[in-house]
Amino acid sequence: MTHANLMNNYFDPNSVYTEEDFRCSFRMRRHVFKRLLCDVQQVNPYFQQKRDRAGRPSFSPHQKVTVALQMIAYGSAADSMDETHGVSESTCLDTLQEFCDTIVQLYKDEYLREPNQKDMNRLLRKAEDLGFPGMIGSLDCMHWDWKNCPTGWQ
């Protein structure tokens, strides 16, 4: 039933929620989600729907990817997924681990790599345009004068 609700709300052709609603909920466009779903299913059999020991369909790939993304995007606790998606805490944790491992396997060469010189030059230009020349890495603002800095932080 939770799979049917998820499909009806977000993925069916005449879904309840619009593309904008989808983007707000999933923090990505629907076509990006579909590509991600297809990619993880091809690489990891965990994301292919199977039957449980009673012969009923197990959690759908849509449910598994949705649960993993919601835990990552919103910092949702695994035990809170049972109410909204009908997925137990242990299954959520397994799903999150499988999802993260699969994403690293799939995209590490393209997206999860060390920046090259071209990337560094682009980042430096972007930071300079924003008023932070020479900045690479996180900005902790320790070298900036902050007129209204709270007393406890001084």
Report on the structure:
Helices cover 54% and strands 0% of the residues. The chain has 154 residues and is mostly helical. The chain folds into two domains: 2-107, no CATH class; 118-153, no CATH class. The radius of gyration is 21 Å and the shape is elongated.
Short description:
With 154 residues, the chain is an all-alpha fold.
The domain count comes to 2
Number of strands: 0
Unreliable residue runs: none
Strand content: under 5%
Query: Quaternary status of these chains?
Result: single chain
Q: So how many helices?
A: 7
Largest sheet: none
Q: State the separation between the terminal residues, measured CA to CA.
A: 55 Å
Calculate Rg over CA atoms: 21 Å
Which secondary-structure class do the elements indicate?
Answer: mainly alpha
Please provide the ordered H/E string of secondary-structure elements.
HHHHHHH
Using the alpha-carbon principal axes, give the shape.
Answer: elongated
